[in-house]
Design a protein that fits this description.
The structure holds three protein chains of three kinds. Chain A is of the alpha/beta class. Chain A contains six helices and twelve strands. The chains are: A alpha/beta, B alpha/beta, C alpha/beta. The structure holds iron/sulfur cluster (SF4).
Chain lengths: ~220, ~475, ~250
């Protein structure tokens, strides 16, 4: 794209500098008061939060049980394309789902009428019952376009709270490598009509998290 | 009085008498209040959270130039474009030119108060571009061809019946009044728009300096669709939206959600750092951020009111405001309504035209108690009032009235005399049968209220009688 | 014996003198020696709130001068108390009176907080056998942080049943000149509040601010409501000997 002339930049910055030049330093002693109670028992907390925010959370022992749970789940989903993050873990899990028509993220974006998106997660957040996904998890549309989003995860991915999850993201350089990261908490929703909660506003109506206690 | 002030008085008086609207708004606010109470209970220390959020915003606002430059540098490194707009026109021109160059015919938009502020839809539409508001509430008010009623809940003033009738009229074939089904109707309609639009426009709740990311918060997922499906993504944000670090979001997200809707955290908190990368299956090819000044740097130069730039547009002060609940969002005649609107609008659009809003408050202070970044809104209303008087914007007779009043009050004998005369005058007026008529000197009080019985003696007279002269 | 100087807001002096007298009675009964400085007029709040800080300032300076000799100042209005304690520092910043104002701010008390927190009284021996609801006056609650003191005093009154409104903390809509600048908004807010008092099933609504009561009395009487208004001081001034009926604004 051609570079657009932007002389306003210098003028705005100059005004900001003039306006803040005499601002006294606001450095105050760090505030150590805890804001949230610490999370104990992350898995239990995660499940409780999921129940509260309408995420379906299924906990199993092993990765292969997780694959079978996925197959069960997909059995209840209407005919049509399943969009899946192209990764060995997801391929292994989906191998148990037999003959479903699968579109892999390596083949492009999910189609408008794909029936479910199957992805991994960057992290899970116990404190809020959230799933953190990035564009590495099958792109932007995988967790968004299909009416059902299914996440495959294991308990080692549980961050106790949001600060810990953000720390994980920083450590893994996720924001450097990916053009987008999203903290997802429950299925898409709206309350714009008389404050009545309706699920599935624009994004998925169902969010399912399949967690195995063993990591694979 | 200017046109804006006259319109305000007219509209406010009309909605103040609209009991049906009060019912709807009150129901919404009660629902919200209950949710916020539950939301706050999740915090061990809500006060500490407010304090910390204020500190984060203060840190950014006090060194705004550094953080904005850092943000810009990182966006550029990732292949995004940053445009600095001094005015609403500059911002609109950038977006419309970009759309024209790329041959855009359809734009999908997620909720963005800044885009309302710059009137982007009108600018795009005059270039023949179709704009779809995709937030359900915004979609509804767009169909009604009216501005949002509330900065967080745009269709707060409507019942499902009204929305159903609207859909029936504008979209055809809608037979239901069920919110679930009405939402499904909008979803179907908008899905088509999402998949055909060439450009998505979003706001940004935060600009994260250390990551060069914009952070967008929505429940519906529409902002994600806007920033994922079309070929071009444009995010528009006020320059005050910058925060230092991605880690700050770990607190700002739950606080924004709690203050905004009472949720523990909003459904989708999305970070976007740039256009799709080579290895990604989808996402826009172009990513643009428009940084809007439009009066903000001037506000920054006001040390008394700089903190108004801390606002995270959660809408809590609107819900808490008894004036807002009485007159509704439209009466303000401004994009930002409620306490924050009354404080901010004179800075963005001129004190001369919008000073009246700062007087339309009982200064009850309920807004300051709920503001998650602790903006002292009533103080700023008082300062705006003072500034309006200093700028000579109030009627001469008010000015003279206060000068006279002060002269009377500067001496207790004069005070006693004037007080006696006023009570006597009122009694005479009443005896003459003026009470409640157009000639009633207290008409502005008595139109909707009774006057108290005027006592024979003042306190000081009674005191003298019982305790002797001081 | 504690010496207190009465701070009688200008509109109480002229329109609601009985509230001042009742406050003086209660303070005396609480064991205070009560003075009234006749030089006092207005604290300047109407001008300050209307933006006429130039006109408010000389009155604030005058107020500080008049009360400089007082040991403690007690006021039957939370709003006027807040003017001195919370807003004088803004208004007088940078003037020679600033220091004296700061010292005075520490000695100015709203009536109920003075009784409970300074005089240490929660039962003044009053009797008022009625169902009463307490309206949290905005400045009393949010500028001075007084929520429990008036309620504790009310609970100490013989025969009084304290009932709470769902919207006890909501503004009554008075707001000084706001009430006549925007009469329609102000009155609609008053109606909402009045309806809350009616729903609570109260016979009386009481408060720590006579201006709120002026507004509510005007609204309630226009609605032909059964609910009446009475200032906290007037409730506390009633004893069993006074009989049962009476409110200050009947
Ligand atoms: S001023 Fe405070 S309460 Fe009002 S919208 Fe802004 S952040 Fe929220």
């Amino acid at each position: 794209m051609a570079q657009v002339e932007n002389p306003a930049r210098e003028r705005i910055l100059a005004r900001i500098r003039a306006a803040t030049r005499s601002v006294p330093s606001s450095r105050t002693a760090p505030d150590a008061r805890p804001i949230f109670a610490p999370v104990s028992g992350p898995l239990e907390r995660f499940r409780a939060e999921c129940a509260a925010n309408a995420t379906e959370c299924i906990v199993v022992e092993t990765a292969s049980e997780r694959g079978r749970a996925l197959a069960d789940l997909l059995g209840g989903i209407p005919e049509g394309e399943i969009f899946a993050q192209d990764s060995p873990k997801v391929r292994r899990a989906l191998a148990l789902s037999g003959t479903r028509q699968i579109r892999w993220s390596s083949e492009g974006a999910p189609s408008e009428n794909s029936q479910a998106g199957v992805t991994l997660a960057e992290a899970l957040v116990a404190q809020t019952g959230s799933v953190v996904v990035s564009t590495a998890c099958g792109g932007r549309g995988a967790s968004l376009v299909p009416p059902v989003h299914i996440v495959l995860a294991d308990t080692s991915q549980l961050a106790p709270d949001l600060p810990a999850a953000m720390e994980t993201i920083r450590r893994n350089g996720t924001l450097m490598a990916c053009s987008s990261v999203c903290v997802i908490t429950g299925p898409s929703r709206t309350a714009d009509i008389e404050k009545i909660l309706v699920l599935g506003a624009h994004g998925p109506r169902r969010l399912v998290v399949l967690i195995s206690r063993e990591s694979d | 009085m200017n046109a804006a002030a006259e319109a305000f008085l007219r509209e406010a008086a009309a909605t103040a008498a609209n009991g049906e609207l009060h019912q709807i708004v009150r129901k919404g606010v009660e629902h919200y209040d209950a949710a916020v109470e539950r939301g706050r209970a999740r915090f061990l220390d809500w006060e500490a959270a407010r304090q910390r959020c204020r500190k984060i915003k203060r840190e950014a606002i006090d060194r705004l130039d550094l953080y904005l430059e850092e943000f810009e540098r990182r966006v550029n490194e990732r292949g995004g474009h940053v445009f600095w707009a001094e005015t609403a026109e500059d911002a609109c021109r950038y977006v419309t030119d970009l759309a024209a160059r790329a041959g855009v015919r359809t734009v999908v938009k997620s909720k963005s108060m800044v885009s309302e502020e710059i009137r982007l839809n009108a600018a795009l539409e005059t270039r023949g571009i179709k704009v779809w508001e995709t937030d359900l509430g915004e979609f509804i008010v767009q169909l009604r061809e009216e501005p949002p009623f509330h900065i967080v809940t745009p269709a707060m003033h409507l019942t499902r019946r009204q929305i159903a009738a609207l859909f029936r009229e504008k979209l055809g074939g809608v037979q239901t009044e069920d919110p679930q089904e009405l939402t499904a109707v909008a979803r179907r309609e908008l899905r088509r728009a999402f998949f055909s639009a060439e450009m998505g426009v979003t706001g940004a709740n935060f600009l994260v300096a250390d990551s060069g990311a914009i952070a967008i918060t929505t429940n519906e997922g529409n902002a994600r669709l806007c920033s994922s499906l079309p070929r071009i993504h444009v995010a528009i944000a006020g320059i005050e939206k910058v925060i230092p670090r991605a880690e700050d979001l770990a607190l700002l997200w739950p606080v924004l959600a709690t203050a905004g809707t009472g949720q523990a955290i909003t459904c989708y908190n999305t970070l976007v750092t740039g256009p799709r990368t080579a290895s990604e299956p989808d996402g826009p090819e172009e990513f643009h951020v428009v940084l809007l000044d439009n009066g903000r740097s001037r506000l920054l130069a006001d040390p008394e009111q700089r903190e108004v730039l801390h606002c995270i547009r959660c809408g809590a002060c609107l819900n808490a405001c008894p004036v807002f609940r009485t007159i509704g969002g439209h009466a303000y005649g401004t994009i930002y309504s409620g306490p924050i609107g009354s404080v901010l609008t004179p800075h963005l659009r001129g004190l001369a035209e919008f000073q009246h809003l700062s007087f339309a408050s009982s200064l009850c202070g309920a807004c300051a108690v709920v503001c998650p970044v602790k903006i002292d809104l009533p103080r700023h209303l008082l300062q705006n009032r003072r500034n309006a008087i200093a700028a000579g914007l109030r009627p001469a007779q008010e000015r003279t009235g206060f000068r006279l009043w002060r002269w009377a009050m500067e001496n207790d004998r004069r005070f006693t005399m004037f007080g006696w005369a006023a009570r006597f005058g009122w009694k005479m007026a009443r005896r003459a049968g003026l009470a409640g008529t157009a000639l009633d000197p207290a008409r502005r009080w008595t139109k909707a209220r009774e006057m108290p019985e005027i006592p024979r003696h003042s306190f000081r007279a009674l005191w003298r009688k019982t305790h002797g002269a001081g | 014996m504690k010496e207190v100087a009465l701070f009688i807001p200008c509109f109480v002096d002229q329109l609601l003198p009985e509230i001042g007298m009742d406050m003086a009675r209660v303070l005396q009964r609480a064991g205070c020696a009560v003075n009234f400085f006749e030089e006092q007029t207005c604290c300047g709040q109407p001008a300050f709130n209307s933006g006429y800080w130039q006109d408010a300032r000389p009155l604030a300076e005058r107020f500080v001068r008049v009360f400089s000799r007082a040991e403690a100042v007690v006021c039957p209005s939370g709003s006027c108390t807040a003017m001195v304690r919370r807003f004088y520092p803004d208004l007088l910043a940078g003037t020679p009176a600033a220091e004296e104002a700061k010292r005075l701010a520490e000695r100015v008390f709203e009536f109920s907080e003075f009784l409970v927190n300074v005089a240490g009284v929660t039962d003044i021996g009053a009797s008022f056998p009625h169902r009463v609801t307490y309206h949290d006056a905005c400045h009393t609650l949010r500028e001075l942080g007084i929520r429990e003191e008036p309620r504790r005093l009310l609970r100490g009154v013989r025969g009084l049943t304290l009932v709470e409104m769902a919207n006890a903390e909501e503004c009554c809509g008075f707001g000084g000149t706001f009430s006549t600048k925007f009469p329609m908004i102000s009155a609609a807010m008053g109606e909402t509040k009045a309806a809350g008092a009616e729903r609570a099933g109260a016979e009386y609504v009481t408060s720590t601010d006579p201006s709120c009561l002026l507004q509510l009395d005007g609204i309630l009487r226009r609605r032909k409501s059964q609910v009446r208004t009475i200032h906290l001081a007037s409730i506390l001034a009633r004893t069993e000997a006074d009989g049962t009926n009476s409110g200050n604004q009947e």
